[in-house]
Write a structure and sequence with these properties.
single chain; 290 residues; mainly alpha
Amino acid sequence: MDPLAVGLILVSAGSHAVWNYLAKGSGDKDSFMLLMNVTSQFTILPVFLFLLRDWALPLDVLPFIVLSAIAEAVYFLALSRAYDAGDLSVVYPVARSAPLFVAVAGAVLLGESISVVGLAGILLVLVGVYVLHLKGLRWGSLLEPLRSFRGPAFGFALIAALGTTAYSLSDKVGVTRVNPLLYSFWLEIAITVALTPIIMRGRGWRGVASEWGRAKARITVSGALMRGGYILVLVAMTLAPVGYLLALRQVSVVVGALLGLALLGEGYGAPRLLGSATIFAGVYVLAAFT
């Protein structure tokens, strides 16, 4: 595999984990998510200005842009609530387990078969999610996750993963029909259009402005990392097989768990690292070998 492609994907994985860490530490997470999407359009605009020649709205993929924007709005809102209710080292790996749902959706909706390797990947993800919720690596805590699964953090993280599944499937079709950068440009606008009325109704201009005044630097950095990381993925896709690159990008689940444990002081380090590593192994197998 091209070393440059690997490097770009690893940087992208790190940027994704870091913006989630910054979002977790925000005050008003709904306002943060909206402002992060708004600022990203300005911080990454020079890239679009340099690389795009045709800015026209691609009407032939408009339905996919709309569907993806709605799914991304669900993702951001669910992620916000998950981070309000739970730890980064638990929420982030669960929210990043979308390849499991992509594989299942492909089998159920598209009639695709799941190989033995695919089943192994799904099993690894499920085991990883379970281990992630253990309070310790001992027999006495073996049933602890059954109680955690009923909590809001797990539920919203799961909704975020389902949102990721929906927009991933939609984007996969969209970027095969038009320039991926053009698709990304209009998708960013559509996401902001979808998020704004929902968050403004809940927070109002005053609430959103308050979050901006409190965390403008954190918001701006997060927006640049979020969209900049995505552009790195698009560039890497031109250099190496897509499946392997997207699989490798899932190393971000381990990075996210480490950030939560090391910088936020979250507990239960051993099971959370083990669970995150197991989820990474599972999604890597699903993305690279199925």
